[in-house]
Design a protein that fits this description.
By secondary structure, the chain is an alpha/beta fold. The chain is built from 11 helices and 9 strands. The chain has one domain: Alkaline Phosphatase, subunit A (3-Layer(aba) Sandwich), CATH 3.40.720.10. The structure holds zinc ion.
């Protein structure tokens, strides 16, 4: 039984992460983390894969088939399962997570900050502004709110979901200085978060919902640029497996989180948890 922080970095591509996230790759190199390439489900879009990551089923099962499906989740998911088993849940994330797991549609005033044990995301700090033109809600504030949630509420499951890779990738493409610099900036934020988190007993998982093509505003399809995202897992005891060079399925994320939390894996999550 443990605690988990999932850093779901929007539009974090596997090869760019591997090339430029030096702190994470250091942890992999010295065996304090385990690295896989995670194959994202299709369509490689945000809202469908937010739901896939948290339910362990593809869009043909969970029904969130596009970014325009504005409703709460119908499926057993990490947040609902954790809450049902007495765990504390939290998220610093884009407001689509509030819509999927707390309430839809989103009330920009009343849903922005919530602390309510009756909600699936009990401690939520949600942002609305996503720019769309290379601007967005700053990642540094998303990580800061996540760190506050960790320190103040000691959640068993904490989601941290920064969006700027997506905003910059959509404006400039993944083969751009702006995108690469933001990937590096996120690695620096992780270098501040992870030592504090593992000291508190957390397993930290870093992955993406989808990747990004080199051309601006292109994700959604089947190429490795958009399907391959990293999965780096940092255990609290420092005993990682290094780079496994193995591929895993995005469908394995939710059952892995449930297993790490020590709660039953719902029958709907049919993929195997990772052997960590
Ligand atoms: Zn996304």
């Amino acid at each position: 039984m443990g605690k988990v922080i999932l850093v779901l970095s929007d539009a974090l591509r596997d090869d760019v992460a591997k090339a430029h996230m030096g702190y994470l790759e250091h942890l992999v190199e010295v065996g304090q983390a385990t690295r896989y390439t995670c194959i994202a489900e299709m369509p490689t879009m945000s809202r469908p894969n937010y739901e896939t990551v948290h339910t362990g089923v593809p869009c043909s099962v969970h029904g969130v088939t596009s970014n325009f499906q504005v409703r709460t989740s119908y499926m057993p998911n990490v947040f609902s399962q954790a809450r049902a088993h007495g765990k504390v849940t939290a998220a610093s994330a884009y407001y689509w997570f509030s819509e999927l797991y707390n309430a839809a549609p989103y009330d920009i005033v009343m849903h922005r900050e919530v602390d309510d044990p009756a909600l699936n995301i009990q401690h939520g700090r949600f942002y609305y502004y996503d720019g769309g033109d290379g601007t967005g809600y700053p990642d540094v504030d998303v990580f800061a709110a996540g760190g506050m949630l960790m320190a103040r509420y000691s959640p068993d499951y904490l989601l941290i979901h920064p969006m700027m890779n997506d905003a910059l990738g959509e404006k400039f493409g993944a083969d751009s200085v702006a995108y690469r610099r933001n990937v590096i900036a996120q690695d620096v934020m992780l270098a501040n978060l992870i030592p504090q988190a593992v000291a508190l007993g957390y397993t930290v998982m870093v992955t993406g919902d989808h990747g990004m093509c080199d051309d601006p505003s292109t994700h959604g399809g089947s190429t490795p640029a958009v399907r391959n995202v990293p999965m780096v897992i940092v255990p609290p005891d420092g005993n990682g497996q290094g780079d496994t060079f193995a591929q895993i399925s995005q469908l394995q994320v939710a059952p892995t989180v449930c297993t790490l939390l020590g709660i039953p894996v719902p029958d709907t999550m049919k993929s195997s948890p990772l052997a960590l």
